[in-house]
């Protein structure tokens, strides 16, 4: 028999679950503050946040239809923050194609989910609402929890722990336990199973994190893979690989590599080398070179045009001579 909604165990697990999930959501604030401050998105992947809006919205719908108030606040909170993060990303992104993809992805996701909910509510039998929505929300949440596992192979190849964070994994486990127990006390298998999957995912990530630390110690990555700027070695490249909107205006004399201002922002160095080793390509010099190239091109075009006119004149003169002789 499920516990009373105001019982101590229900309230305790509900509050703890909300606090832990709120901490996970707020852990992303520094990343987006940096994006807002630098106005550069770099290679940041915004699509997990697009996905999170959908799964948070589905949990809000599920909880309202099934009259489970405990998971409404945190999912509403997460949905609003994720939307704010996406808006910051779109406003800072300078690539119009990327902006369109993000907005179209979000629009398609919302249209599909709203249509799905409408079909379930208006077409399915009322006693099936909880089952259908429960399965849908559980699948989305399990997919979200286990999405980092998809990057394990790539991280292993590169000998890196990637974006894995121990505090975040531990918080994910605690949130999973809290809401998993909340589901147990409510006797709601969908909440229980989907949230306990978060515990399993967090444990797997922690185990993989320490395995990778051991692998890196035994078989460290090659020197070039440690160099996060090695993509900027190409002399013909004008824009930074890691910050596509930024021009490569810096050159480190020590490591013979190019960099943009975003590569060295707040670091005051390039790969540990002092900033005085950075030779700044003056923008004015670049502009002068561009103007010079433009002038040379114009002169060349003018010369070609003059030669063409001369040739035409010669042809006309020749034709006149021929006619006069005839």
TrEMBL record:
The keyword Membrane applies. It is found in: Endomembrane system. It is a multi-pass membrane protein. Belongs to the SWEET sugar transporter family. Residues 288-317 have a biased composition (Basic and acidic residues). Keywords: Membrane, Metal-binding, Repeat, Sugar transport, Transmembrane, Transmembrane helix, Transport, Zinc, Zinc-finger. InterPro entries: MFS_trans_sf (IPR036259), SWEET (IPR047664), SWEET_rpt (IPR004316), Znf_B-box (IPR000315). Its main location: membrane. Residues 288-326 are annotated as: Disordered. This is B box-type domain-containing protein. One of its GO terms (cellular component) is membrane. GO terms for molecular function: sugar transmembrane transporter activity; zinc ion binding. The chain crosses the membrane at residues 15-33, 45-65, 71-90, 102-122, 134-153, 165-185, 191-212. PROSITE patterns: ZF_BBOX.
């Amino acid at each position: 028999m499920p516990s009373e909604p105001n019982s101590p165990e229900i309230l305790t697990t509900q509050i703890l679950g909300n606090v832990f999930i709120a901490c996970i959501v707020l852990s992303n604030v520094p990343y987006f503050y940096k994006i807002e401050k630098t106005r550069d998105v770099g290679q940041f992947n915004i699509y997990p946040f697009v996905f999170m809006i959908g799964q948070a919205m589905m949990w809000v719908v599920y909880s309202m239809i099934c009259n489970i108030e405990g998971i409404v606040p945190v999912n509403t909170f997460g949905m609003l923050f994720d939307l704010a993060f996406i808006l910051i990303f779109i406003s800072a992104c300078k690539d119009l194609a990327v902006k369109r993809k993000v907005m179209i992805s979000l629009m398609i996701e919302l249209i599909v989910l709203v249509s799905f909910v409408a079909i379930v509510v208006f077409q399915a039998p009322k006693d099936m609402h909880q089952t259908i929505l429960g399965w849908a929300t559980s699948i989305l949440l399990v997919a979200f929890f286990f999405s980092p596992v998809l990057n394990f192979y790539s991280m292993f190849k590169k000998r890196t722990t990637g974006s894995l964070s121990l505090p975040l994994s531990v918080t994910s486990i605690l949130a999973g336990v809290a809401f998993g127990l909340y589901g147990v006390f409510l006797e709601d298998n969908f909440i229980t199973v989907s949230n306990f999957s978060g515990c399993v995912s967090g444990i797997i990530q922690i185990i993989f994190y320490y395995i990778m630390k051991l692998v890196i110690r035994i078989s460290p990555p090659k020197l070039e893979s440690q160099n996060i700027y090695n993509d900027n070695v190409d002399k013909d490249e004008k824009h930074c690989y890691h910050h596509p909107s930024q021009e490569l205006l810096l050159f480190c004399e020590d490591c013979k590599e190019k960099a943009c201002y975003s590569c060295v922002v707040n670091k005051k160095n390039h790969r540990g080398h002092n900033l005085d080793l950075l030779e700044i390509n003056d923008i004015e010099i670049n502009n002068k070179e561009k103007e010079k190239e433009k002038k040379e091109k114009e002169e060349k075009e003018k010369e070609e045009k003059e030669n063409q006119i001369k040739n035409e004149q010669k042809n006309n003169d020749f034709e006149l001579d021929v006619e006069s002789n005839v």
